[in-house]
Structures are given as C-alpha cells and as structure tokens.
Design brief:
It contains 4 helices and 7 strands; from the N terminus they run H-H-E-E-H-E-H-E-E-E-E. It is of the alpha+beta class. A hairpin with a 2-residue loop joins strand 5 and strand 6. The longest helix is centred in the first third of the chain and has 50 residues.
C-alpha cells in the first residue's frame, strides 16, 4: 500500500510537470517554429523568383507610362496581363519548392527557447513537423517615393501569403507566413504623376 501510494504521487507529479511544460512550452515553441518556417518560406520565395523567366521580371514589361499632351508623365499603371503571367509562373515554382518544407522535420533547441545557459552536450531539441503548407495569395504592390526635385523612386513588391500548420508538443499551431520581396525599382525623372497603380490584384 505504501509503495502504491508513492507510485501514485510520482505519477501525479509527472502529470503536473507535463501539463506545466505543455502550457509553458507550447506557445514558445509555436512562435519559434513560426519564425523559423517563415524564414524558410521567404528563402524559397527568393529562389522561386530567381528561377522565373528574367523577361517576366522586367520593369519595362510590368509598368506602363502615360504622358499628357505636353510630354509630361501623367500616370503610371500596371501591365496587368504581364503581371498575371509573372504571378502564375512564380506560383508554379513555389508549389514545387514548398515540397522541400513538407519533408522537413525541424528541431528547436530547448535551451534557446528559454534562454537557458545549458552546456552544448546537454541541450535538448523540441521536434516541429510541418503538417500542411500552401500558398493562399500572391499579389504585387507598388509605391512611389519622392527622392528629390522632379524625381521619384518607383518600387514594385511581390507579396506571398502562405498558410502553414505545424505539429508541436501538445498539439498543432496554424499561422499565415507573409513574404514581401522587392521585385523591381526605377528612378523616374519628371513631375510626379497624378496617379499610379498598386498591382492590387491577386493570383
């Protein structure tokens, strides 16, 4: 009876420790896993962008300039057909490369999660597995910035939103990873136009 009572107390103690660890470890692990996977997705997006046809990334093909009767720049607009082809090509590249993340089993050092000064040999790792990943949105954005008298810098960005589900100790975590990368930019001389497009359509 005494031994049974001791075993029961040990079991309850272990259960309490597990519940406390799960409650404390789960949000920290989820945040660390999200940061690490978002960085991987951004790197894959950069690689996918490099693998697309150079002509599709051409600034001259993506943008159209409109001038008034005096020859002044009146508006900057997006070549939507060309932008759509670029988005489709990039989407296909990302679908192929995202398989690399699906096959990965990430490990997060326990010492780094809690800033524990553990010796290298004693550092434990927390497993993180990617359960599902898919790109949910792909869009382009642009902006104009005045950089001097009659000078403006026009930037075009590619924005990828990816839905991710990861398996961590104690359950799963879901998040949306956003990668925003510079696609092209150009210094435009002349009067700032009255309007410009934002490439707001999504693929």
């Amino acid at each position: 009876m005494r031994l049974l009572l001791i075993l029961l107390m040990v079991f309850l103690l272990l259960l309490l420790v597990c519940r406390w660890s799960e409650k404390r470890l789960r949000p920290v692990t989820a945040a660390a896993g999200e940061a690490q996977i978002t960085a991987r997705i951004t790197a894959l997006t950069e690689e996918a962008l490099r693998q697309t046809e150079p002509g599709l990334r051409s600034y001259e093909q993506l943008v159209r300039f409109h001038y008034d009767k005096s020859g002044n720049l009146a508006a900057v607009s997006a070549n939507l057909d060309h932008a759509s082809r670029l988005q489709t090509a990039l989407w296909e590249q990302l679908e192929q490369l995202s398989g690399e993340i699906r096959e990965e089993n990430l490990t997060l050092p326990l010492a780094s999660l809690f800033s524990l000064p553990l010796p290298t040999k004693l550092q434990l790792s927390v497993p993180v597995r990617v359960e599902s990943i898919y790109s949910s949105a792909c869009r382009m954005e642009s902006e104009l910035e005045e950089v001097g008298i009659n000078q403006m810098l026009h930037r075009i960005w590619i924005v990828i939103e990816t839905e991710v589900t990861i398996l961590i100790p104690g359950g799963t975590a879901e998040f949306t990873a956003e990668s925003r990368l510079p696609l092209a930019e150009s210094l435009i001389l002349g009067k700032v136009p009255d309007s410009y497009s934002y490439f707001s359509q999504g693929a």
